[in-house]
């Protein structure tokens, strides 16, 4: 019933030269009903991002969080993500951005720093040596947690967990 109503409504759109543009996008065009496909006059194949586009997307998604990353880190991750869609890269960047927070949740070692006259705490790895404050993130004063920048190790962890959502078979089809 939904498909029938969709086709009826789509048939009436633009019949009075209303200058209406209907744009659809799918990763599975072969799964669409032929009647739906016929309603779209033009079909444009947009390939997965190439290495330059992947590097651009990574930089763009991590803008403002990328102080701990170098150009070669972005190039390295872009090279390892062949076959990834823009959405896959967004998930990867989100996972990398959460790595410092995950560290803060599991560690009991924090370095005390003063930022603009306010005491802040930076989470340290459990194997860290030297001066540190022993407590959990839940024992810190409100608004005193200062997360470290995303590192190349955070990106590598995210890449190791990430998987492309578009298979080679899907691309071939």
The count of strands amounts to: 3
What structural class should be given to the helix and strand makeup? Answer: mainly alpha
Report the uncertain regions.
none
Average pLDDT = 90
Topology:
Blueprint (H helix, E strand, L loop, with lengths): L1 H11 L21 H6 L11 H11 L9 H10 L5 H21 L2 E7 L2 E6 L9 E2 L17 H10 L6 H5 L1
Antiparallel strand pairs: 1-2, 1-3
Helix pairs in contact: 3-4, 3-5, 5-6
Structural write-up:
The protein has a 3-stranded antiparallel sheet with strand order 2-1-3. It is mainly alpha-helical and 173 residues long. Helix 3 packs across helix 4 and helix 3 (51-61) packs across helix 5. The longest helix has 21 residues, at 86-106. The chain is 43% helix and 9% strand. It has 7 helices and 3 strands; from the N terminus they run H-H-H-H-H-E-E-E-H-H. The mean pLDDT is 90. Strand 1 and strand 2 (118-123) form a beta hairpin.
Keywords:
3 strands; 173 residues; 7 helices; three-stranded antiparallel β-sheet; 9% strand; mainly alpha
What's this model, at a glance?
By secondary structure, the chain is mainly α. It has helices at 2-12, 34-39, 51-61, 71-80, 86-106, 152-161, 168-172; strands at residues 109-115, 118-123, 133-134.
């Amino acid at each position: 019933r939904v498909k029938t109503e969709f086709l009826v409504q789509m048939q009436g759109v633009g019949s009075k030269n209303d200058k209406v543009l209907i744009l659809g996008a799918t990763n599975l065009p072969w799964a669409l009903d032929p009647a739906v496909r016929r309603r779209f006059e033009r079909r444009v194949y947009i390939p997965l991002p190439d290495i330059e586009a992947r590097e651009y997307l990574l930089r763009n998604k991590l803008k403002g969080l990328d102080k701990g990353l170098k150009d070669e880190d972005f190039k390295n991750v872009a090279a390892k993500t062949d076959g990834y869609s823009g959405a896959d890269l967004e998930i990867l960047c989100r996972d990398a951005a959460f790595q410092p927070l995950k560290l803060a949740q599991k560690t009991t070692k924090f370095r005390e720093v003063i930022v603009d006259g306010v005491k802040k705490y930076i989470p340290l790895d459990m194997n860290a040596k030297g001066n540190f404050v022993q407590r959990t993130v839940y024992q810190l004063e409100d608004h005193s947690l200062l997360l470290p920048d995303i590192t190349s190790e955070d990106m590598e962890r995210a890449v190791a967990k990430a998987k492309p959502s578009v298979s080679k078979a899907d691309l071939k089809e």
